[in-house]
Recover the amino acids of this structure.
């Protein structure tokens, strides 16, 4: 009598159970990999955007649309003047990193040449003398961080303060770019830049050319944030990026 070959019910159950477990592990791993890839893309895209603002300014790219006129440091949109015919001097960019949001807002910074500029002064003082102002009424730009990653915190290590404004201003006499980090005044539409960058005011010392961290958190629940670092230096290393942010990097107060 020939014995029938086959699998027992227990063997089939074990096979199905192990297969289901392996499939679940694979799906979990795939999901984590996708979330990690998305977050890396969010961070690198944000870094590229901020770096592009720096590079454009360094290379003299004028993004001003000519929708404003300048007179003695006062900006007006009532009588627009096209670039090249205006006394508006394009000087830089202001980027706002508002906490708990996934959108950055960028504004143009323009100034006016004083009657008798002293080009022997330090860049920081010369920039202040040109009375730079933030143009909020026209020419602003919004950038949405991909995959809804958000700004989760910031810190300026020199004084432990939380900051949300990052200004890049090119010296009127050279290609040097001076960076400014500070806390934007709470009053809507205040944007009082000159009072925050005046190098003769001791309280502004930490606003000028000081490093700052801006942390980015994933919308997918990944635990460790990434970090953009503003170094205050020149060139490609002025805007850094890393994925090893730790507690304390962005807990400014």
């Amino acid at each position: 009598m020939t014995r029938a070959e086959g699998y027992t019910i227990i063997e089939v159950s074990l096979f199905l159970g192990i297969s289901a477990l392996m499939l679940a592990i694979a799906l979990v791993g795939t999901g984590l990999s996708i979330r990690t890839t998305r977050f890396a893309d969010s961070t690198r895209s944000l870094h590229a955007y901020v770096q592009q603002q720096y590079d454009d300014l360094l290379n003299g790219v004028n993004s001003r649309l000519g929708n404003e006129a300048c007179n003695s440091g006062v900006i007006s949109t009532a009588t627009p003047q096209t670039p090249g015919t205006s006394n508006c001097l394009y000087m830089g960019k202001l980027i706002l990193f508002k906490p708990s949001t996934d959108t950055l807002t960028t504004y143009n910074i323009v100034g006016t040449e004083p009657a008798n500029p002293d080009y022997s002064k330090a860049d920081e003082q010369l920039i202040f003398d040109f009375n730079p102002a933030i143009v909020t009424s026209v020419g602003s730009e919004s950038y949405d961080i991909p995959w809804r990653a958000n700004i989760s915190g910031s810190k300026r290590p020199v004084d432990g303060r939380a900051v949300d404004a990052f200004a890049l201003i090119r010296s009127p006499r050279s290609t040097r770019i001076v960076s400014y980090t500070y806390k934007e005044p709470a009053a809507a539409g205040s944007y009082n830049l000159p009072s925050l960058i005046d190098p003769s005011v001791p309280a502004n010392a930490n606003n000028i050319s000081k490093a700052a961290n801006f942390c980015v958190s994933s919308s997918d629940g990944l635990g460790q944030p990434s970090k953009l670092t503003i170094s205050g230096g020149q060139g490609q290393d002025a805007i850094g990026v890393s994925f090893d942010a730790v507690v304390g990097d962005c807990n400014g107060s």
Notes: Helices lie at 9-58, 123-129, 193-197. The chain is about 25% helix and 25% strand. The mean pLDDT is 85. The two ends are 85 Å apart (CA to CA).
